[in-house]
Structure formats: C-alpha cells, structure tokens
Amino acid sequence: SNADETRVIKIDPKTMTIVKEGPIISVAHSNDLTYDSKRNKLVVPWCSVDSFKVSFIDPETLKVTSSSSISGTAAGIFALAYNEAENNYIAAESSYAKNGCGMYELNDRLRFVERYDGLSLGYTAQGIFCDSKYIYYTLSPNSSVDGLKKQNIVNVFDWDGSYVCTLTIDLPYEIEHIFWYDNSFWAGFNSKGAAEL
C-alpha cells in the first residue's frame, strides 16, 4: 500500500540539507536502519507486513539490492543495529507488547544467537543502536500527562545483555531512533527535525 512506500534520504546533519533522495522503495514500515560496513549496505528491517524480512540498500544509489530473512527467533524484529567490532547485529523484538522490550543478538548472517530483556516499564519500544561496548534501546512513553508525552528514555545494556543505566530525553515528541555522528548522539523523532543529544 502507499503507506508502506519508503524513500531513503541523505541529510547533512551540520546544515540539515538534503544531499540525495533515493527512489520510492517497498520496505514496509521501516522506521529504523543500520549501516553494515562489511557488506557496504544499509540494512532496513521491514517492521510491519513481514517482521522477519530485511532489505539491503546501496548507500550510494539508495536502491534496494537484495532482501533476506532473519531466522531462529520466536518473533520478528522492527529495529536493527550493526556492531562493526564483532560483525554481528542487535535487533528489537517485534512482539514487545507480549514479551516486554526484548532484544535479539544476531550473527552476520542474521541468525539468532541470544535473546535479552530490554526492560519495557510501560514504554513503547522504538529504535536500537549499538557500538562495540553498549546497546542503546530507545523507548517512548505509552501515556501522556496534560496532553504532552512524558520523557523518552534510552535503556543502555552491555553485550551480555546486562542493564547499565537509563538516559532520559526531555522532549515531548515520540523518539524513533538514535545514532552516533561527529562525537555526539543524535535522535530522530516523530516530528519535524532531529535533535543532537
């Protein structure tokens, strides 16, 4: 459907100007993506329609080059982050309403390795990011107070799945994802613009 059509757009975070617009592609809901430096591909989980499916996108042309499926997991995924140091992935489990905000560690072939608890605490799971030391799981509040959303949070875990800390983001918008750029964390929200954290 038209609601599931997506376009990848490159933006220069320093000027917030569009550098390149890709063609319309069919990758379902796709509210998160990651860069796999081994494959030199952007990897996009479909999130809805087929939560076990991911597509690989050429970072230059912004076109889909192939698709694949994750395997060995009890549920699908809706967010994905590549860990360059270990050549593996961390994914946000798609059945978080039933199972809490779970996370799947996947190998380089998108095969299940381990499941971790992401600590839901009444929040809606959103995007996921990682580096060689930590996993950063973004969550938005399920409820509102006086018409405004409560704080968004980022739960931080080590690669054993052990909880490290919770970071709060005092903005009233629904957080979607975070990423590291130019020595800063950046967050995308379901609103116009982005914020440097």
SSE map:
Blueprint: E1 5-6, E2 9-12, E3 17-21, E4 25-26, E5 34-36, E6 41-45, E7 53-57, E8 64-69, E9 77-83, E10 88-93, H1 96-99, E11 102-106, E12 112-117, E13 123-130, E14 134-141, E15 144-145, E16 148-149, E17 152-158, E18 163-169, E19 175-181, E20 184-189, E21 194-196
Structure, explained:
The chain is an all-beta fold and 197 residues long. 2% of the residues lie in helices and 54% in strands. It contains one helix and 21 strands. It has one helix at 96-99, and strands at 5-6, 9-12, 17-21, 25-26, 34-36, 41-45, 53-57, 64-69, 77-83, 88-93, 102-106, 112-117, 123-130, 134-141, 144-145, 148-149, 152-158, 163-169, 175-181, 184-189, 194-196. The strands form seven sheets. Strands 5-6-7-8 form a four-stranded antiparallel β-sheet, with no helix packed on it. The chain has a four-stranded antiparallel β-sheet with strand order 9-10-11-12, with no helix packed on it. Strands 13-14-17-18 form a four-stranded antiparallel β-sheet, with no helix packed on it. The chain is globular and about 40 Å long. The relative contact order is 0.12. The mean pLDDT is 84.
